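Recap for those who missed Tuesday's class. We walked through two folding examples back to back. For each one, the amino acid string is listed first and its predicted structure tokens come directly after. Nothing is annotated here on purpose, so try labeling regions yourself before you check the end of the notes.
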Amino acid sequence: MTDQPLRKLEFLHANGFPASSYRRLFQNFKDFDVHFVESLGQFERGLPQDWESIADQVLTQMNSHQPSVGVGHSLGAVVLLYAAEQRPEAFTNIILLDPPLFSFSKRASLWLLKKFGKMDRVTPARTTLRRREAFSSHLEAFDQLRKRSFFRKFSDEVLSDYVSNGFIEQADGVKLRIPKDLEYHLFQTIPLHFSKSWKGLKGHLVFASDKGVLQQSDRNELRRSLPGFQHTAVSGGHMFPLEQPEKTAEIIKKLINSRN
């Protein structure tokens, strides 16, 4: 009897967290062939123009494994929408994990802040510039990051995966794999306009109910802009795929099976 081929899954990561940081999440998808771009928007030619321009990077990488279930977290969720808009036949399902897509009033405010160079006040961009980008070793990076409140809910295993994959070796220690200028640029170019073509897409939107990026006004807007997406709440904050990888995997698989 011939074994059935594994279903394919394309994962798109959050800003500042290389895809391999999600290893613990991926371990729960042994019945899937998981693929990803390790660092979205990292090009030899320089910084990407915007988030939409990163979709080509994803679609090129997917040429050998279409169609796939598409799953994206934060930045990755929005890039996934742009990729699906360009090539909807490449995806059998679309699952967005806490995408930073805001209400019209918030986007108007962000547009004004951006116009006057004040985006740092409301996005994580300022924090990115203050990030330490090099350590003497992976061990020192782990020990220092373990003390930070941002990583408090990361298990030691997940934090170790982030440190191992988020920092690359250099002559005098380790440095960030995703450069700070790229992470900063991506926060500065957060999408302020929604594509009308998104209304033709279908899938699932999973939002964090505890200090996630989407408030009720944002979710109301997304019900109008993405009418084909069913909403699911998950307890936790914006980083729930890394803070709760097993629970997140269960939700994703349930949503995949609910459609197939």
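Example two. Treat it independently of the first, because the proteins are unrelated.
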Amino acid sequence: MHTTISLRTRRLVGATAAFAAAGLILVIGASAASAAGPNVGFGFNAREIKGAPTGAVRLTGGGSFGASTGFVHAGGGFSCTSSVGQGPLAGCQTGEGVRWDAAELLPSTPFKCTGAASEVLKTASTDGETVALRSDFYRAGDGNDESFTANMFVSAKDLAPDIAGVQNAWVQGVGCATATAHFSS
């Protein structure tokens, strides 16, 4: 005896199998994502980070980080707009700088916007609206070898309310700035 399966039945069985496979992928993917914890995406533009005795830098960029897991993948553009004479970026001359990338996600970093002895030491802590990083900074001609390594932060909020204006971006040894910054999770 020969049986035939109608085209309608074959399509129904195929659709059911595809739906079951998609559901399984969705469940496995969701459990893997929740095990890793939610990542936060961020993007920013800081035109003139300054405040220390000498120097200024321009930073742009963004990336993603997981505060609970320590995951970070971030980077962007970097340029010294005025020669830096102190701190980890000392020696970066006006016009130098190409890019930066995150070397490590920091739980927090101490900072001062001006470097003045009278300025109160503050702390930037990584959370859903702030990312503190140890970053590598590169100049043209240095290839893949970092030229400088320094701490930095970007935030959606003012982290130095004792200083006029919004101070939501900072580079160690250079200072603070008002940045256009966006965070999403």
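Answers for example two:
The longest strand covers residues 40-51.
The longest helix spans residues 7-36.
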